[in-house]
Amino acid sequence: MNDQMLNVVVRKRHEQGAGVVVLDLSDPAGLPLPVFEAGAHVDIHLGGGLVRQYSLCSNPADPQVYRLGVLKDPASRGGSVAVHEQLLEGREVQISAPRNLFPLAADARRSILIGGGIGITPMLAMAYTLQARDSEFELHYCGRSRNHSAFLEELKSADFANCVRTHFDDEAPEQKLDLPAVLGQAEQGVHLYVCGPAGFMDWVISEAAKAGYSDDHIHREYFQVEVDNSGAGFEVVAARSGKSVQVAEGQTILDALAGVGIKIDISCEQGVCGTCLCDVLEGEPDHRDVYLTDDEKAANDQILVCCSRAKSIKLVLDI
Ligand code: FES
User: Fold this and answer.
1) pLDDT band at 224 (very low <50, low <70, confident <90, very high)
2) What is the pLDDT of residues 138-189, one digit of tens each?
3) Ligand 1 atom closest to 266 (CA)
4) Taking the CA atoms of the chain, what radius of gyration do you get in angstroms?
5) Is the model's pLDDT at 75 over the cut of 70?
6) Is any ligand 1 atom within 6 A of the Cβ of residue 278?
7) Does 227 sit in the ligand 1 pocket, CB within 6 Å?
8) Each residue of 159-169: pLDDT tens digit?
């Protein structure tokens, strides 16, 4: 994990679509920002221990700005509301250096980018990069309606505008996303990238699997998931210290470990980012995250302790 922190200032802020604020962050002294790759995100430190992650959606070739698009989600646990209320123009804020858990595949012959709602954000950075690489791609942007959707002007005026297709729920049936046609049958070198609400992503991923796409050709980034902490209690042993703790029903492994003084690095606390990944030495995890691939889950040798639980009565972790 890259622990480098950056101080940035909100240079520009504007509202787009329904409830989306677009923020341009830059170095307070106007210096170039660290380079980032398409698909990367930053952690924003909002005060009071509140840390949230947002994808960078600006052109990675522009070192002067990190652009974020943040949807105000009234059901959120405070993150997006704090961004909307606190991050006004001129405000300084601490962010992590960019980290990329959603990179473009280096060997792609063709890329299919599908963004649902605010899930368009990482796709924008990917489109800039693929265009600069002269690599074949198409970008599909799905939303409830044009009025609700951010970034439409940018997509219309971008150099890659001819690679963009929009699909709105309230417009003519012919423009709706015909997923089987877009996916076709899986071919060597064709990679799919999807980001959006969980139900939308599950639909795209299951259709891609039906079309023969292998798991390592389906790249995904969830931005919001429900964490389910239900299930019986179990024991967790921290092998390095030998400490043992009982995880109660409704409690996370993370919280139980904190109770015996074992601190694990965290960020999203939703099984999305991978920050809290620990190696499993013994026992069977009950994976509840959306970060590990199906193959990694089946291997049962890693666990995300912010959300996952145990199927066995005991888990021994390499911590
Ligand atoms: S903190 Fe993000 S996956 Fe656990």
Assistant:
1) low
2) 999 999 999 989 999 999 999 999 999 999 999 999 999 999 999 999 999 9
3) 1
4) 20
5) no
6) no
7) no
8) 999 999 999 99
One of 1.10.10.60, 3.40.50.2300, 3.40.50.80, 3.30.470.20 is the CATH number of 110-222, namely 3.40.50.80
The residue to mutate among 1, 50, 264, 306, having the most atoms of ligand 1 within 8 angstroms of its beta carbon, is 306
Q: Phi first, then psi: what are they for 97, rounded to 5°?
A: -65, 155
Tell me the average pLDDT across 27-50: 92
Q: 264 C-alpha to center of ligand 1: Å?
A: 10
234-317: CATH architecture: Roll (3.10)
Cα 68 to ligand 1 centre (Å)? 20
Q: Which segment of 67-81, 96-110, 265-279 scores lowest on mean pLDDT?
A: 67-81
How distant, in Å, are the alpha carbons of 21, 78, 200, 203, 253 from that of 96?
20, 19, 29, 32, 25
Quick one: which atom of ligand 1 is closest to the CA of 291?
Answer: 3
Residue 156 phi, psi dihedral angles, 5° rounding: -70, -35
In this structure, the strands spanning 110-116 and 190-196 are parallel
CA of 257 to the centre of ligand 1 (A): 15
